[in-house]
Structure to design on (1009 residues):
């Protein structure tokens, strides 16, 4: 046979070896090739060789398959040796309790933080709703006046339900709140008005009693409620006879007819609803909301629909386009150009307009938690490397005694996985604790409701994933290192040989740089948030924050007529102003910095942005004295007074921002507005007042206008008092006076304006607090990382340093030399950190107030903080090295 | 462990028996074992590379055989040598006895008569 042909046969056979598991190929491949080639040489003729190949192929197929099968059944990891190695790893860890405890603590914090964040993000964003076939449920939105999908008028949702060819059911729902007469006095509860079709849309059913029936969908019937599964347990004590029980909401009796399905949150997932209320119960929210049920100009309802079998989202969209055209024709002044959009429930979490912010917050939170985990892992990898170097002698002996390199590497990996496992368990315990502590944080203020947060299977699976990831992540580097260790060299010079390995030093420096960079990002983020918070707290709000107290009163049980109410309000204000310390009292329908109602308004002479016919304007109804009590200045014209009596026209006051936006520099006095759909320009501007916060602090100048209570119906809820001294001190006298005046008028909330503004800053404050915690953690870890690297460098070079000192080098010079080396690593980390921060900061600039995303001062401050931490962490071990006795150092080496 | 029980339980697979038999006389490397088996079976048994080395790996794990140092200085250092252990010898003896009884029975039934 020609040599080239022989070579070709050999190559094919070696290719065939790829069928076998790698470990088998490595151990026996060479000898197998040898055996095959020997046989090939002995075989004459192409017929014989073909037969040999036939036999060889069959041999390879059966044996490779058998070996792979056995490997898959646990043979590959050889269960017995795996168990042995695990026991060994556990013993090793127990023998180094300080290291183990530290590592577990690091991991517990890292994994715990991430699991906690995941639980929140999962509830807010990731978890699919508990509906049947949620992909068949769609959200339908009429456009707002700004032309964005927003919400629907109740009549429009009834129109949608007539499209039975595309929707099998359409439900209307609107979230609300009510005061529940619980056993511990009145408590605010989350309610949601829903139609009888709601359960058919969601494909669910109540677990007790019944859901609303079609006759509950009209006002006039008795108000009925379905209690949510969560509220049934927490608020009603899981009462088995709850169906038929009567509770009081807003002071009125409501009959509970059922208990809702398990895990069902409000439509505005994932906030919890306490009671679903029938449309017939709308009377609980007053005549205004009842009137809304018939008004096409008010869009208060979300619409959910279930698609008919076989109907696509696109087909239902076509049907809604037809409806939009129909409505535009029937109500041109209200609905011309107003589209109706269908969204698959896959694409909506809370609302198409709000989801972006939720995703941003969730993404940021996850990124921050992951950064902390990254720092923890880098740190642990470092610690394990240091340990690994100390053990290179032991590992080399194992290798020399025939332990396969893979098995030595596996020991490292097992150790880190074991650590990660215990750390993960501790992390889950931390998570449970954190979740139970969360309600103490003002999260409810931030997201506007309650979340159901539990450590369930999803969370546990997530933690398990993290354990595996981190175990591999921080165990891999030392494992690979150990597998590459040069056995003979490691044995020859034991400790020093392996430790001076350049690759290891570089790897460890890199790990420290990563920690520095990640910490810088967090510290900088904290700095930016803290500065925005400080700016928000000191921002000039335009109102007299320090001297105003408020009491929110519930008028519903007083049962006042329109004229009676006006007289009652005057009487109440007089009585309150008579209290010592009170300077001025007014009533208002809302507080500054509070999300509240808007009205769709047309402004005479002002052309709204293309595609819209009107603007949404926030408004408040106030009594005389409101602006004096709040300390809001009159800029032009006059305030409300006795001239503004009932009549055809309505006087309004506008804020400066409103005047600027609609009329620019022109005189706003005498300008007119009207509610959308109304014929005449009924609202006339009589004065301009200073800007006060509208929806929140730091939102910029938002237009808003005021009605006088003299020309409005109803009784504003907020009783506002300006005091000469501490406003908190006046709250109790106000309550007492109120009780003495009319016991039927009750207090549902109270506070000072300062505390209300403080609460409205709950989001930035919570964010800043969280960031402080996370970045302190990262700083601590980075400091620890630098400390270990320097300690180790110093120990490794103790003899060199000893000689230098013995030869007369200044001890301070030695310190400087060591610190210089660390400075390079830290410098690289800081450089990378600044770069990453700059990129990240520009992304989140929308979350900042009063500070630029690339604020040089904050950047400088963050760098300084890290340099200080790095300096201290490096200086301590360096100094210890310099103090060392040179004789000792030389002898030890 | 499942695999070691498979391989050391009687009766062993034919390949295992042949390998044990080949090692009974002397320590050998893989190629030597294959040659010896072919010789002893008059060319009738040819273990494929996969069968041979898979059996060797499993037998070593089941302690039927063990790796031994190469005997002579001239031996190829790349080749691993194997020797039979007492466990392996036990199994070989038991299986040989069983096969012997089988042959006895066959003889008693006169299956060999025509050839004799």
């Amino acid at each position: 046979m020609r040599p080239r042909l022989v070579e070709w046969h050999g190559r094919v056979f070696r290719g065939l070896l790829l069928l076998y598991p790698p470990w088998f190929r490595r151990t026996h491949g060479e000898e197998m090739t040898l055996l095959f080639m020997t046989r090939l040489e002995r075989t004459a003729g192409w017929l014989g060789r073909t037969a040999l190949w036939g036999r060889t192929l069959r041999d390879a197929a059966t044996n490779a398959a058998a070996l792979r099968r056995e490997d898959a059944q646990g043979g590959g990891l050889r269960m017995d040796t795996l168990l042995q190695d695990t026991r060994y790893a556990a013993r090793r860890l127990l023998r180094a309790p300080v290291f183990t405890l530290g590592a577990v603590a690091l991991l517990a914090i890292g994994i715990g933080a991430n699991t906690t964040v995941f639980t929140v993000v999962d509830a807010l964003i990731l978890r699919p709703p508990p509906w049947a076939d949620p992909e068949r449920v769609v959200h339908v939105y009429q456009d707002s006046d700004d032309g964005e999908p927003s919400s629907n008028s109740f009549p429009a949702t009834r129109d949608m339900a007539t499209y039975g060819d595309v929707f099998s059911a359409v439900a209307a729902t609107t979230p609300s709140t009510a005061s529940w007469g619980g056993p511990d006095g009145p408590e605010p509860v989350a309610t949601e008005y829903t139609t009888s079709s709601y359960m058919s849309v969601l494909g669910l059913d109540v677990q007790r009693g019944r859901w609303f029936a079609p006759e509950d969908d009209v006002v006039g019937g008795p108000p009925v409620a379905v209690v949510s599964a969560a509220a049934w347990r927490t608020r009603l004590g899981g009462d088995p006879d709850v169906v038929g029980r009567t509770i009081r909401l807003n002071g009125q009796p409501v009959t509970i007819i059922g208990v809702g399905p398990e895990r069902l949150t409000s439509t505005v997932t994932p906030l919890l609803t306490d009671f679903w209320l029938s449309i017939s119960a709308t009377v609980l929210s007053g005549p205004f909301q009842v009137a809304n049920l018939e008004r096409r100009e008010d869009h208060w309802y979300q619409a959910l629909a279930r698609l008919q079998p076989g109907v696509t989202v696109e087909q239902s969209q076509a049907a809604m386009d037809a409806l939009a055209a129909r409505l535009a024709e029937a109500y041109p002044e209200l609905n011309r150009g107003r589209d109706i959009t269908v969204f698959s429930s896959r694409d909506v979490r809370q609302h198409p307009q709000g989801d972006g912010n939720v995703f941003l917050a969730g993404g940021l939170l996850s990124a921050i938690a992951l950064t902390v985990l990254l720092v923890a892992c880098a740190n642990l990898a470092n610690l394990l490397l240091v340990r690994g170097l100390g053990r290179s002698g032991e590992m080399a002996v194992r290798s020399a005694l025939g332990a396969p390199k893979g098995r030595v590497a596996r020991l490292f990996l097992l150790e880190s996985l074991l650590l990660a496992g215990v750390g993960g368990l501790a992390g889950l315990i931390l998570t449970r604790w954190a979740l139970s502590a969360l309600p103490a944080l003002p999260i409810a203020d931030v997201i506007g409701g309650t979340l159901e947060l539990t450590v369930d299977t999803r969370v546990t699976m997530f933690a398990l994933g993290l354990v595996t990831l981190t175990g591999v992540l921080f165990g891999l580097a030392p494992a690979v290192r150990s597998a590459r260790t040069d056995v003979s060299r490691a044995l020859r010079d034991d400790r020093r040989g392996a430790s001076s390995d350049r690759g290891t030093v570089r790897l460890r420096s890199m790990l420290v740089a990563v920690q520095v960079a990640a910490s810088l990002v967090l510290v900088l983020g904290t700095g930016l948030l803290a500065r925005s918070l400080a700016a928000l707290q000191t921002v000039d709000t335009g109102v007299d924050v320090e001297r105003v107290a408020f009491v929110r009163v519930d008028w519903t049980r007083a049962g006042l007529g329109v004229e009676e109410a006006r007289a009652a309000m005057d009487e109440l204000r007089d009585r309150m102003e008579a209290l010592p310390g009170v300077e001025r009292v007014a009533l208002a329908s809302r507080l500054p910095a509070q999300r509240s109602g808007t009205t769709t308004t047309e402004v005479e002479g002002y052309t709204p942005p293309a595609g819209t016919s009107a603007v949404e304007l926030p408004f408040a109804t106030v009594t005389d004295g409101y602006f004096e009590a709040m300390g809001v200045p009159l800029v032009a014209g006059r305030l409300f007074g006795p001239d503004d009596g009932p009549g055809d026209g309505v006087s309004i006051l506008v804020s400066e921002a409103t005047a600027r936006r609609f009329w620019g520099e022109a005189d706003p006095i005498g300008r007119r507005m009207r509610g959308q759909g109304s014929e005449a320009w009924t609202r006339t501007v009589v004065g301009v007042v200073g800007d006060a916060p509208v929806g929140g602090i730091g939102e910029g100048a938002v237009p808003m206008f005021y009605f006088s209570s003299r020309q409005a119906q109803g009784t504003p809820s907020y009783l506002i008092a300006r005091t000469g001294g501490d406003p908190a001190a006046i709250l109790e006298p106000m309550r007492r006076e109120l009780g003495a005046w009319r016991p039927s008028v009750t207090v549902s909330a109270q506070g000072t304006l300062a505390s209300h503004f403080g609460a409205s800053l709950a989001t930035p404050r919570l964010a800043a607090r969280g960031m402080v915690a996370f970045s302190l953690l990262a700083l601590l870890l980075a400091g620890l990382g630098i400390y270990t690297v320097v300690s180790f460098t110093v120990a490794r070079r103790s003899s060199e340093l000893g000689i230098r000192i013995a030869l007369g080098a200044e001890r301070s010079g030695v310190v400087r030399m060591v610190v210089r080396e660390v400075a390079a690593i830290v410098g690289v980390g800081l450089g990378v950190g600044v770069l990453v921060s700059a990129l990240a900061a520009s992304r989140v600039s929308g979350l900042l107030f009063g500070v630029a995303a690339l604020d040089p001062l904050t950047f400088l401050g963050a760098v300084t903080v890290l340099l200080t931490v790095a300096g201290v962490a490096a200086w301590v071990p360096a100094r210890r090295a310099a103090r060392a006795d040179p004789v000792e150092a030389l002898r030890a080496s | 462990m499942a695999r070691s029980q498979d391989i050391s339980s009687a009766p062993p697979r034919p390949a295992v028996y042949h390998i044990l038999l080949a090692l009974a006389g002397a320590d050998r490397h893989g190629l030597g074992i294959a040659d010896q088996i072919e010789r002893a079976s008059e060319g009738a048994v040819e273990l494929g590379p996969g069968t041979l080395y898979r059996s060797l790996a499993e037998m070593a794990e089941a302690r039927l055989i063990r790796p031994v140092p190469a005997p002579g200085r001239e031996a190829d250092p790349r080749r691993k040598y194997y020797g039979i252990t007492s466990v392996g010898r036990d199994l070989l003896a038991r299986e040989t006895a069983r096969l012997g009884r089988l042959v006895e029975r066959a003889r008693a039934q006169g299956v060999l008569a025509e050839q004799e």
Notes: The interface with chain A takes residues 1-3, 29-31, 34, 46, 48-54, 56-57, 78-80 of chain B (CB under 8 Å). Helices of chain B lie at 2-8, 14-25, 30-40, 49-61, 86-108.
